[in-house]
Amino acid sequence: MENPNIRKDEVLEKLGLAEYYILQKKEGYRFTIDPILLAGFAETGYHDKILDLGTGGGILPFLLQKNNPEKNLTITGIDIQREYIEMALRSKIINKTDSINFLEMDIKNIPANFRNSFNVIITNPPFFKVNEGKINQKKEIALARHELEVSFLQIIKAAAFSLKDNGKFYFIHRSERLMEIGRALTQEGLSISRLRLIYNDEKTPSKLFLGEAVKRKNPQLKVSPPLIIYDDKGNYKEEVRCLYD
Description:
Elements: E1 10-14, E2 21-25, H1 33-41, E3 49-53, H2 59-67, E4 74-79, H3 82-95, E5 100-104, E6 118-123, H4 139-145, H5 152-162, E7 163-174, H6 178-187, E8 190-199, E9 208-215, E10 222-223, E11 227-228, H7 238-243
Helix pairs in contact: 1-2
């Protein structure tokens, strides 16, 4: 019998060993290792209220709930793409969870009732500016990779607006944009409190980093040990393998 929540152009994938599933397009944008690493980096507290900016198909909310089943998190994911919000809502039905919600919303127009409302904000943003690299012809892939609808500065503004004081903002981005991002965070009242550089292997430079910023606080910066994805045989390192469990 066919599941009415799964359409012909979609596939249902299990998230690790836990009983969580997510719908993805058979063709088009599919989640990568980036949200897996980001969800593993983010720290949450009991009963935290969390906002995912640019949720796509909802991978980060489901990962956060999978990783923190005892914390009674309340998670909202927003995205401008109606098709992906509808798909995320069907994933929610499949997972039978009431603590995650998805809303069709433009990050540039966060509503007033979101102001100072969230303990944690998280985002896996587009990495490239409009004038950087080739833009994919498929709209959903182009929006995921390039700042066509929203820039990272606008995402930072939305995070600063929506976070409670002392709330934390988690993100992943390109290492070469670290200084630019640090300045933008400071301008919006956010301070980088923790960094972790990501390396494909032990021989190549870092291309990505994981960041944590805190609102209206001046913390000491903590730099975590490097996160190396692959061993010398091209297999995931143990830490990364564990994130998939």
